Amino acid sequence: MASEDEQAATAKTQEVKAALRTQQQRGRISPEHLLPVLEDIAVTWRVEISNRTTGTTATVPTDGSIFGIYVGQSACISGAVSSSRIWVNVNGHFPETGCIYPPW
User: Fold this and answer.
1) Is-contact 74 59, C-beta < 8 A?
2) Distance from C-alpha of 69 to C-alpha of 79, rounded to nearest angstrom
3) Triad 31, 58, 13: Cα angle to 5°
4) Cross-strand partners of 80
5) Which end of the chain is more exposed for a tag (fewer CB within 10 A), N or C?
6) Chain centroid to CA 5: how far?
7) Neighbours of 12 (CB within 10 A)
8) Which residues is 51 bridged to in the sheet?
9) Are 91 and 75 in contact (CB under 8 A)?
């Protein structure tokens, strides 16, 4: 990951966390509620978002959303939000899934 991209991503993480916390408190954690909020923060960067899943094959729906924000050419702000927790991390692209965490 290029250091310039990593720095830009790191600079936005607190804003992303604050926006997710606000949406979580409002009970608006579905992809359709979070996409416009994350797009406002990402501005020119691309945002991907989908429903959270669980289980060994990652096919069982659960509450909340997972997201990835592409920062520059090599960095991501990746994470998830549920009714009880918020995850936000800076990382490089995942070969399988881009900025969204691959199912484990």
Assistant:
1) no
2) 9
3) 45
4) 66, 87
5) C
6) 16
7) 18
8) 65
9) yes
3-state secondary structure of 49: strand
Distances (CA, A) of 68 to 13, 43, 89: 12, 14, 10
* Beta strands across the sheet bearing 60-71: 47-54, 60-71, 75-81, 86-92
| Residue in this structure with the two tokens 């729906």, named with its chain if needed | 61
3-state helix vs strand vs coil in the chain, percent to 5: 35, 35, 30
Per-residue pLDDT of the chain (104 residues; tens, 9 = 90+): 999 999 999 999 999 999 999 999 999 999 999 999 999 999 999 999 999 877 656 676 778 999 999 999 999 999 999 999 999 999 999 998 899 988 76
> Amino acid letter at 95?
P
| Whole-structure pTM value | 0.90
